[in-house]
Amino acid sequence: MVTTEEEADRPKCLDGTRFDLLQQIRSWAESSDSPNIFLLTGDSGTGKSTVARTIAEEFGQEERLGSYIYFEKGKTDSNTVVNSVIKTIAYGLAKKNPVIAKKIYATSTSNFELGFPSSHVMFENLVHIPLLEAAKKGVFKPSLIILDALDECGPSHIQEELAGLVGENISKLPSLFRFLVTTRQESSLESLLQAQIASNCKYYKLDRTSTSSRNDILKFVNHKMWELGKFQDFEIEDKTWKDIIGELGAGADGVFVWASVAISYISNSYLNRPERLGALVNDQATTNKSLSRLYEMILEKGSTWDDLKRERFRSIFSLILFGKRWITNPEIDVLLGLEIGTTHAFLPRVKRLIHHVSLYEYLVSSECVNKSWYIDEGEGRMKISLCCFEQMRKSLHFNICELEKPFEINEDVSQLQQYIEKDIPSSLQYVCQNWALHLQDVPYSDELHNQLHYFAYNTLLYWAEVLSITGYLHVCLGSALRIAINWLGVS
C-alpha cells in the first residue's frame, strides 16, 4: 500500500485533460462546509487512479497530503489490511503535526501490550481522538487522505469492514480532514459505500461515454502520437493524420487504458512503429472497443509461442500477478532458477501491459483459456507456494551470515546491513516474509503438507533467524504461524 517505485512511475493526467473533475476535487478539498468524503467511481480503465495520482502529487508538493494509499489486486494481506490502513493514516498525520504525534504516542504506548480489541477502537484512538484534540487547539491544517482503488483491498469481508470503517467514522472527523476514495463502478464495494455514506459524500462518476471523456482521450492520443512523430514519420495508405488520431480515439471508446496500452505497443519497437500503428487502425476487431482483443493482438504478435516460451511466460507472470509485492526481474530469475537477465530480456515485449488490473483479469479469464498465454490461477498460486518452501529448504541454515558471534543481538553486530546484503538476497527475504501469505492462497494438498512438515521440523529456526536479522521477526513470525495452523485445520 505504500507508494513504491513502481507506483511513483504511474502516469498523471495530461495537462488540459480531466480539467473540470480536477477543479471539483480541489474546490471540495479546500471547503469546510461540504461532505468530507469524495467518492470517485467509473468503469475499469477510465482513469480513476490517474486522477488520484495527479491530486496526490499536487497536494504532496503543497504539503497538504496526509496519506496516499494505493491498493493493487492481490498485493494486500487480508489479515492486516484494515489495521494497516489506520496505522498508515495515523503515521501520515503524526509526521505533520506534533500535537497529533504526541497523542498517538501516548495512546500507543499505553496499549502496547494488549493492543486494540477492534479496528474501530484503533481508529478512534489513533485517528479520531488525536484529530479532535489538534482541532480543539487550533493546530490542525487541512489534510487530504487518498484511498485509491479501494475495491482491490481484498476479499468481500475485508471490503465490507473497510466500507464500514469509512462510512461510520470518517464523517465524524473535523471538516478539514478530507478523504478522496476511488473504486470501480458497480463493484460490491461501491454498493457498500453508497449504503454507508450516501448522505455524507460528494459523488462523481467518470462516464466514459461523455463528450468530455472522449475529447480528453483524443487530446491524449494526439499528444502521445505527436511525441512519437517528432522522431519518425507515420504514414498509412488512404488515412490522414486526423483519421489516425480519430480511429485510435474511437477505438478507446472512453477507456484511457486502451489508449495508453495501444500507444505503448506502438512506441515499444522503433523499427516496427508504422507497421504496428497500421495493424491497430486497420484491425476492426481491435478498434471495436475491446480491451481484451487489444491484449490478444499484442500478445499474439509479441512472441512465437513454443512450449518453452509458453511455460516461461506463465511462470514469470504468475509471480508478477500473484506476488505479494512487486518482485524485481533478478528476484524472479532466482526464484524460478533462471539465468540472471532472463526475465529482463523476456519482459520488454509485454512490460507496458502489466500495470493495470484489466490484464490480470484477462490472463486468468475463461476467454483466453485456450490461448498460449492463459494462466491457471490455482496452478500458478500452487507453484509459487511450493517454490517458497523449496527456496527456504535450499538456502536457509544456521548462522546464515557467518557471524563470528552468532548469538550477539543485532544492535551489537558491526556492519550488519553489509552481512545481510552479502548473505541474504532479496529473493530469499521475500520468501521468508511471504511464504505463509502464499500458503493461505491455496487449498490443502499432501505435497504442500509434506513441505510444511519438513519446514516445521528442519528449517523453522533458521527462518526465524533471517526474520530477526532483517528486522521482520515481530511483523511476520506470529501471523505466519497462525496462518499455517489455520491452513492445516488445527484449532
UniProtKB/TrEMBL annotation:
Native source species: Pyrrhoderma noxium
Gene3D superfamilies (UniProt xref): P-loop containing nucleotide triphosphate hydrolases
Keyword entries, A-Z: Repeat
Presence of keyword Transcription: no
Tagged with keyword Oxidoreductase: no
Identification of the protein by name: WD40 domain containing protein
SMART domains: AAA
Top-rank taxon: Eukaryota
Domain AAA+ ATPase residues, every copy: 34-208
Annotated signal peptide: none
PROSITE patterns membership: SIGMA54_INTERACT_1 (PS00675)
